[in-house]
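Appendix B. Raw example, untouched.
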Amino acid sequence: MKPLLFAFAVTIPACTAMQHDPVAIRAASLRSGICVLHHVPLREATVYEFAPVHVATLDPGMGTEVHDRYPNSLPVEYEFKKSEFNTKPVRYRYCPVCQQSYHRDLDEASKKAAEEWKREHHT
């Protein structure tokens, strides 16, 4: 019984630490094929990477901060649809729940930033 309690005691801090480490969350999800945050299977899709010529000008801004909360969402340098700037097709595994949450939180953060900017510049 003591070895079981020890294993349990060691596992809880590891899980708690992983909850705050986007790299560990992403790695564990890729290994298992299941999002460790939402417990749903990862999906695989062809996405389009930001063209190498333009990477130096990419300013991820809020996107990186929000992505760290949902590390199994599509990073800011990728898009689901090909565009003028996102031209290189690559395969990517993502969590549909992380992706939906990422877009929701990014929209909220963008609205909040716009409101703050209006207050600062229109007072």
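End of appendix B.
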